[in-house]
Amino acid sequence: MNAKFSPSLMTMDLDKFKEQITFLNEHVDSYHIDIMDGHYVPNITLSPWFIEQVKKISTVPISTHLMVTNPSQWIEQLIKIKSEYICIHAEVMNGIAFRLINQVHDANLKFGVVLNPETSINVIKPYIDLVDKITIMTVDPGFAGEKFIDSTLDKIRDLRNLRNTNNFDYLIEMDGSSNKNTFEKIQKVSPDIYILGRSGLFGLDENIENAWYKMLENFSSTKQSSIY
Q1: In this structure, is the dihedral angle defined by the CA atoms of residues 215, 217, 218 and 223, taken in order, positive or negative?
Q2: How many CA atoms lie within 13 A of 42 on its CB side?
Q3: Which of 51, 61, 127, 178 could potentially form a cystine with 30 if both were Cys, beta carbons 3.0 to 4.6 Å apart?
């Protein structure tokens, strides 16, 4: 499977909102939108309202990453605005995982689960066959610019092996510090989706077209054959 790219709109230039989305529509596979409640992580970012604004001009799917303590409070809003993927941290789903998964699937949307760097894949094995996407945090969540954690790549490798062995069909996504300095090590474990933030895309150039092609050049210059 070829690599897919999902820009994290938390790190885009909001004063160039329409310009950047219009260009990226022609090049990316999805948009990654973080919603943080100030409790699960100390930061507060974006909202369902922001997703509505993106959907007015977006032509690609939107993946919402809920970094919140109580995901149940957000699900109905995201279903109403039809976020194509609704992704929730495994750490806050104990006791409600199957209910949330069913709620999202019953709305004909896709469900994703997110794992923090210190969270084991074993936590999600009771429902792993039901999820559409698994996001591995390669940094501590909550802020842009966090340090890349190399050991998280083992989980991407293990998820690929699990998928192949059991014929699962979830996508594998990595989130955190995906850029020129880390592309080579990430490519070795072949996630399906790379989330691109400020260091990987938006901060490369003030012009989004220039930034995009610089990202592709950085990605290609380190690209190597996967070991999987």
Answers
A1: positive
A2: 3
A3: 61
The yes-or-no verdict on residue 226 having pLDDT over 60 is no
Question: One of 13, 34, 106, 140 is an active-site residue; which one?
Answer: 34
C-beta neighbour count of 213 within 10 angstroms? 14
Q: Which pTM does this prediction carry?
A: 0.94
Mind listing the pLDDT tens digit for each residue in 148-180?
A: 999 999 999 999 999 999 999 999 999 999 999
- 108 Cβ contact partners less than 8 Å away, ≥ 6 residues apart: none
In the set 129, 175, 192, 205, the catalytic residue is: 175
Structure tokens of 217? 């050049």
158 is catalytic: no
CA–CA distance, 110 with 101 (Å, rounded to integer):
9
Find the angle CA(193)-CA(138)-CA(93) to the nearest 5 degrees.
Answer: 85
The answer to whether 24 and 208 have CB atoms below 8 angstroms apart is yes
Class of residue 126 by CB neighbours under 10 A (exposed 0-12, middle 13-18, buried 19+): exposed
